[in-house]
Each structure stands twice: as C-alpha cells, then as structure tokens.
Amino acid sequence: MHQRAGFTLIELLMVIVLLGIVATVSVRFVSLSTQGALDVSARQLRAFQGVVVSEQITRELREAFALSVRTSGDCIEWLPLEAGTNYVRLTRGPAFDQIDVAAFANLPSVGTTRAVVYGYGTTTADLYNGTNPGPVSPLISSIDNTGSPASIELSSGHRFTSTSPARRLFVVGQPVSLCRSGRFLYRYNDYSPSSTQPSPPTGDREVLAANLAGNVDFRYLPATLQRAAVVQFAFTLTSEDGSEATTVSQEVQIRNVP
C-alpha cells in the first residue's frame, strides 16, 4: 500500500511566510508607484498653474501705459492703455473741455477713461495726482469719431501742462493692481487713481493665484533710449502640505510710447 506524498506543516508555514513577504513587497511597490505618479501629477499641475498665472500677468502688463507702472512691496499698479491717436488741438477756452484729434482706429470706451498728453519731464506721480493743469484729463464723457477732426468731450474743464513732441494723445482706463495678501495673489480694478499707491486698493478683486509662499517680487525698469520699459516678477507656488515648491519668474517688455 502506497502512502500519498504531501506537504508537511513546516513546508506549509514556509510557503505562507514567503507569500506574505511577496504580497507585502508588491503592495509597497504599488503604493510607492502610485504615490510617485500622484507627486508627478501634482508637480505638473502646479507648473501649469504657474504658467497660466504668468501668462495672464504678462498679457495685462503688455497693455500698460509704460510711464504709469509703479511698485510698492508686494503690489504693482498701472494704467491700462486703451487707444492712442494724434491731437489736432488741445482744450481751449472758454470751457476747456474739448480736444480735437485724428479719428481713432479703435474707439476707446467712455465714462471710465481719461486722456493723457505728456512731454519731457513728466513723471509717474504726475499721472496719478489728478491735478489741473496736469498731463491727465478728467473722465471722458463722449467721443465723436465721425467728424474731421474727431473730438473728445471731457466731463469737466482741463488744461494740459505740456505738449507732446509728436502731438500724441493716449486714452487710459482705471488703474489695475496686483497685490499679494497671505497665500493669495489678487487682481484689483474699478477704483480711482490716487497720488499714493494703495497696497492694496479698495476696488473689486479676484483671486489670480493661491498657495503662494513668501513674497511676490515685482520690479520695474523704466524705458531708456536703447530699450523699452521692463517689468520683472517672480512668485512661488507650494503644495498643499508645503513640502514642495515651484518658482515662476518672468520678464515683460512694455512698449515705449512716444
């Protein structure tokens, strides 16, 4: 009579132990692989967010009136440029509330915009002081772009302190600011110009970026005869737990305006 061959208890225990080791290693490997994939995905998402925020800032700054850019701490402020043309005749008496200009190629909005005429020696502060006489007019109430010449009607009388060498007139909108507050970068708009840069302003705001670490570095390099004005900015985005960070830096050229 033949006895059936089988496994001893020790052999079964060894198999169970080996299977347990293999299972543990496999689970650990899968766990590490999954976590690695999640980390890579989070880094890619953070980098993508940085690119989106950087591009949005860049697009807006490229439309800034170069002389109007000013920085203070974690804030940058500028007047957006809406249109430009040549003037035929500046405000004249008795009301000093009408400017004759060449017709606009792209008609700017009215009610929230102002006319700017500046010459050599005009400073950034002059654009925000709101003085009369000064380089910036009161709000534009209407524009007749059909006449020859076209005409700009101001909400009140104004005299410009200087003329432009190239007889250039620009139309700018209400100020726009970017300011960091805590871990957020906000965009502010719909507020009036002030001689002192507000940090932050009291206008409408929207979140531009979240999960910021440290300061947002804004630097403005005025235009020279060799190059246009330049804005440099840098910010750092962090992961939810703050263990990883991605730094984004950019340099934006702002067109020289004659």
TrEMBL record:
Q: Which UniProt keywords apply?
A: Membrane, Transmembrane, Transmembrane helix
By its UniProt entry, which Pfam families does this protein fall under?
N_methyl
Task: Output the InterPro entries linked to this UniProt entry.
Answer: N_methyl_site (IPR012902), Pilin-like (IPR045584)
TM stretches of this protein: 12-31
Looking up NCBIfam families in the UniProt record yields:
IV_pilin_GFxxxE
Q: Provide the protein name.
A: MSHA biogenesis protein MshO
